[in-house]
Amino acid sequence: MKIFNTINELRNELSEQRANGKKIGFVPTMGYLHEGHASLLKAARKDNDIVVLSIFVNPTQFGPNEDLSSYPRDFERDEKVAQNSGVDYIFYPNVEEMYPSKLKSKLQVINGVNVLCGEKRPGHFDGVALVVTKLFNIVQPHNVYFGLKDAQQVAVIEGLIEDYNIPVTLNKVPIVREEDGLAKSSRNVYLSEQERAEAPTIFKSLQNAKALIDAGERNSVKIEEEIKRILEEKTSGEVDYVNVYSYPELNEITEIKGTIIIAIALKFTKARLIDNIILTIS
Fold this sequence. Notes:
This protein has helices spanning 7-19, 35-47, 75-84, 95-98, 116-120, 124-139, 151-163, 193-198, 201-214, 220-234, and strands spanning 2-4, 24-29, 50-55, 89-91, 143-147, 169-173, 238-246, 258-267, 272-281. The protein is α/β, with parallel strands linked by helices. It folds into two domains: 2-173, Rossmann fold (3-Layer(aba) Sandwich), CATH 3.40.50; 186-281, Pantoate--beta-alanine Ligase, Chain: A,domain 2.
């Protein structure tokens, strides 16, 4: 496994691999890797000759009062996860390498960002689209891998690839969960003991919503209200949002039909957790 800190060094290495007919898989991350990231890397390992992992805490996707400075970082741990997951190359640039000068243009995401996390974090997905576009241009992979825990991000990247004719295949990887159902997240380390005990309620409320839909409920408002009731009764967290939308369009719906997403964000003292399920209703 090789580690590259500069764009030119990585590009030169990958150009040689492409010239030799190697298929390249790419997993972009902000580091502090867990089993969810490992599932992306293992999927990439299965499909490709070369697996590239990027670790970069991207400042353009953080707002003024968000956790950029305190975002967890542990490169030694990340190296071990990467090694165990079959990574060939780690791209580990600093901010100056990725943003060497003031930007001269702006990439703005228009659709699907005024809801869910996008509504609460204005400009966040513009920053995501910017760094992902830069990374796609640097790595030029055949396949990219993103987890469905952040399904809104996946929808945004899917639109980005389509809009700009980026020659890459997007692979969507299911959410990886703890044994009690809690979605794996770098931010889970911020939970207190009590909050960690309460956090699995998020997924349980989604499972309950699916059961209601399976039993015939088609009113999206009733589903949202039932999830909120469970979260408010059984956790000390503050409900940030509970929404049912069409997917991947992320449009409001009143009647549940077709492919939908049920998405939750719950704020605890030091961590804001997100989770979702995607269902197709005939």
